[in-house]
Amino acid sequence: MAIVVLLGTLDTKGLEYAWLRERLLRHGLEVVVVDAGITGEPRLRADVPRSEVARSAGADLERLRAEGDRGAAVTTMARGAAATLRDLYETGRLHGVLALGGSGGTSIATRAMRALPLGVPKLMVSSMASGDVAPYVGSADITMMHSVVDIAGVNSVSAPVLANAADAAAGMAKGFAASPRALRQDRLGTDGRPLVAASMAGVTTPGVDAARERLTDLGYEVLVFHVSGTGGRTLETLAGQGLFAGVLDLTLSELADELVGGTMTAGPGRLTAAGRRGTPQVVGLGALDMVKFGPPHTVPERLRDRDVRVHNPSVTVVRTTRAECAELGRGIAEKLRAARGPAEVCVPLRGLSTLGAPDGPYHDPDADAALFGALREGLRGSAVRTVDFPTHINDPSFGRAAAERLHALIGRAAGTPPAGGA
Hints:
Blueprint: E1 3-8, H1 10-25, E2 30-35, H2 50-56, H3 61-67, H4 70-90, E3 96-101, H5 103-113, E4 122-126, H6 134-137, E5 143-146, H7 158-178, E6 195-200, H8 205-217, E7 221-226, H9 230-240, E8 246-251, H10 253-260, H11 273-277, E9 281-286, E10 290-293, E11 308-312, E12 315-319, H12 322-337, E13 343-348, H13 365-379, E14 385-389, H14 396-414
Parallel strand pairs: 1-2, 1-3, 3-4, 4-5, 6-7, 6-8, 8-9, 9-13, 13-14
Antiparallel strand pairs: 10-12, 11-12
């Protein structure tokens, strides 16, 4: 029987959770109710009471109440809820999780959901879902449903929303129980092939596609992440969990966004997780010749005198300068020097993107040379090797060579000789 976990604050939302519970039971499901409330009395009996949730975070519920710090209490209960959900999942007592709430309830529930593996159904009904949900979703596969009205009773507006949520959660949980599809934690895909991550943008697609095809031929399953900010953060999160046998990071425009102020930054932690885990990585320098913004009006005034190009109606790019390229080279070298595992840099000497190819508008050998020179100088004396290629990044030969170098690093890290031509 499929099991749906209802996670919420039963002191303020108990009646609504009782309504959801009944709706789910009609689907022939088992329902486990977890209470993450703090102060008022629960209005629905929980299968996992709040005191147990607090203990899962190493805390005492009565002490949390006595201290009177709501922010600290919410953070603690979110941590306990995460541990609770993870335990329920690992013991086969969770095939999907459904929650509802305002800002506080959404914060608790989504933090707990993010502790579950990718692929486990996660549905959050929230009054916050019509705004910026990035702080709640992060890099997880959480489905956000807007409650339209506040979660304050079951009425003519909230009833159909909650009914849809319960029905959706029931369907997802039944499907998951019949055929679990959570991402495995052993660096292997569903068919047993080792997982490799690759980064890509539209301006590096041909080169990354060639690399992906070569890695597939070599026996890997390749997960491609679009460097839109979210894509890079997700790559870093999964690499930090040790899910990849190797990382082929050929597209680094998020680093340029972080440096110059573009809108698609993945944060300062980009290009660190694989190194921290000791995962073999081959790094390219794709798309470091540009900074990304939204529509043209989002480009800051201070950058409008540069070569500005409309990539599509939603994305506008600006060419990086020689000084910025040099700073990017130094930053990349610093990150790679800290890597605990094998790392190499493949340097495409004739261009970093479709725009930066020899016949492209962003072709600037002087700026590219500043990037390459600062990178080499920063890596001098380290174990990280740089390998030059007399091609641009989208030449298929570059992608294939980068793939084969990663294959060789993975083989050496595993103590096995490379095969397949690497």
